[in-house]
Design a protein that fits this description.
The chain is mainly alpha-helical. It has one domain. It has helices at 10-29, 35-66, 76-112, 115-123, 127-130. Helix 2 (35-66) runs antiparallel to helix 3. The two termini are 24 Å apart. The relative contact order is 0.16.
Length: 150
């Protein structure tokens, strides 16, 4: 699928993210979120809280385990850069994992979302969400899925 030019507009993306956050908040407030999405949200929050600790932990690992391998007197530069590189790599990997969880959450939301949210997710154009009318009556109370035709 070809990406539209609207996705390269930072103002459009920020408005779309704000509207999606308000849609997700609406779902939480009205208990329309499946347990799978709640579980993914818990994992995202837990991993976001662990980022600084695991990054520092990777630096400590590099300083105690990897650094003694550089015994030469001229390896001072390698000792410093090894700590920075391993910490940066850990930081990067954690953010890749958090982004993958966010994508999983969006895919699960896509299945149960109304037409205007699906249009936004397909085109990344926030104008689809501006017509949104977040209404509890659009959802089936038993299955928590969108009623047909919405």
């Amino acid at each position: 699928m070809q990406d539209t030019c609207a996705s390269h507009d930072p103002e459009n993306l920020s408005k779309g993210q704000l509207l999606m956050e308000s849609y997700i908040k609406f779902l939480y407030d009205n208990s329309l979120v499946s347990s799978k999405i709640v579980d993914i949200d818990k994992r995202i929050r837990r991993n976001k809280n662990l980022v600084p600790f695991l990054t520092v932990g990777a630096g400590v690992f590099a300083s105690y385990i990897v650094n003694p391998l550089f015994l030469s007197r001229t390896a001072r530069f390698l000792r410093v850069t090894t700590i920075l590189l391993i910490s940066t790599y850990m930081f990067y990997r954690l953010h890749v994992y958090i982004n993958a969880l966010n994508e999983e959450k969006i895919i699960n939301l896509y299945i149960v979302s109304p037409r205007y949210v699906k249009s936004y997710l397909e085109t990344k154009d926030h104008r689809h969400l501006l017509e949104a009318n977040f209404d509890v009556n659009d959802f089936d109370p038993v299955t928590k899925m969108v009623k047909p035709g919405k």
